[in-house]
Amino acid sequence: MYTSISKVCQAHFGLDLISDLFIYLFMKITYKDQLQTLFQEVRNDKYRFIPFILLLVSALDAFISLFTTGMVRFDIWVCISILFKSGIIVINMFFLFRLFLLKKTNMYYYLKTYAGYGIVIIYTTYAFPRMSWELAQVISETKAFHLWIFSFISTLFPALLYLFLSLQKTQKAWGVETEKELKAEKKKKTTIPHHKRPMKDIIFENLNVILQAFVIVILIQHFIFQPYVIPSESMVPTILTGDRPIVTKFQSGPAIPLTEWKLPTLKKPERGDIVVFENPHYYQNSLLKKIFQHFVFLATLSLVDIDKDENGEVRKRFIVKRIIGEPGDKLMMVDDEVYMKRKTDDTFTLLKEDKKFSHTDLYNEPPEIAKQIRNKIITKQTRELFTRWDTKKNNTRLQELNTEISKTLTMLHNLFLENGISGQELSPLFSHYQKETNLLVSGISDLPKDNEILVFNKYFKNKGNQEVDDLTGSTLYSINGKKLNLMFDLLILSRFLRFCEINYNSIQGASFSSDNRMYELTRDLSEFYIYAVYYDFRNFPEFPEEKMDYIPEGFYFLMGDNRYNSLDFRYSQEQSYTRSLDPSDPYSFRYPSTLIPSLLSEEKILGIVAGRMWPLNRFGLMN
Per-domain residue ranges for the chain? Predict the structure, then answer.
């Protein structure tokens, strides 16, 4: 009866597989004697026994796990996993029947190929439910680890089967041609002009080669090295937009596939290394998109990224920055220069290495580089402004500024007495000063409008303290902040004084717009505002902030080489606040800031940039 069904299937479909499946359904009855003989044979032959046991155990493992797959939450990924597990059971039983019961040794290499791909299929599909539950945050990290262990054990069965079937002794014991003999036979057949190979063999071989290439490419990129595409200008001119750096991953301990857990680190990152890490603010709530996007990204050598935002722009998942601070460092940045202090040091010293990395004057780059830079934030004129104000600040002492402020206040008080101006009239007078003179000032739009009012309140309403603070233990950053704050105070008081002189003393030929002294003071105020807008690009206080704190082990501080166009670990992407130049002064000059330095955990580092692979004219190792 069963033979008749088999013949009908072969006649209508021409497929041995369908007939074998019908036979397999009644195998326990029809092949009872053969099964008993088979068990006796495999027990006495390790080359049959081991593959038989591995196939059988893998099928039993898949069958048992069917009943535990949806134990946490049932969703589409559980369904997919169950579907694949069911397929594994069917295919394993199929090979057991064809290869062991019917002894069709031509299935040997099909089984080996299946075992090879089974490693990837089982590991991947068994991971789907766990990844879905992790994304939904319905399981703990401990539970996720236990589930991964179970899936890893399941993956060992096809892996061991593949390795055992690859042994030359196993191949000879089964009476099949070795890999070397197969290659020689294949080469011989291709030299025969009229030899026609079955189409199914040609399709199978080509498909196998393509799939193997994909798997190898993905594994190499995941574990050894991977090219990336740079979407921003934060590392200009070291890495230009569109450059494709090669990143070594094995040194940094690549992640276990389809998990967030990393293998041991072979080499600790060092100061000066350019590293790639995942954007801390990146989040993907779709498991399908997460898996498919990463597969496409790896399979196309990072050329295609389908993970885009609502505007069609590629989301910045991977970021490239340079390590500036290592464990044990305390850092500070003043006027574009980074200073460092270790626990054994008494004071901060200039970090000379950073001079090689920092790029602030991109207008000086060679023409072939300059033409590829889209956004040169600092011009030569702006740099000259910075230099002038840096020089003013560095050549001025706090005591001198306080003395000048005292002189200016005395002159103002004398003028008020001469013109009979009382204390009640000062606020309207100052408001009139702002209305008449601020139209002359440029660069004010980016800063709070009440900074001049703070100066007025400090010196006329609250009689601000003009004594020099105790600077013991103060850093260069905090001293500079105090200086700049007083320089602003002096500017506003000097402009107010000149306004009053013109307004009340009727200086011959003088007006707010044409007076040379007012012009100079207004120019200085405009420059000060520009200087303040860029202040956080060029400065940050000691970090970590607490006196006894240093960068802890396993953490790093990173910055971009393009210091004025790098949203790096100096800044927060989520919050802004109003920052004071001198925190000890309640009436200090204030400006909007996102300066909140932070650190990157070593666990988040994906790899170290080793060189560029594209464009060809920039090909080579990274300095």
Answer: 31-192, 227-334+354-362+602-621, 380-600
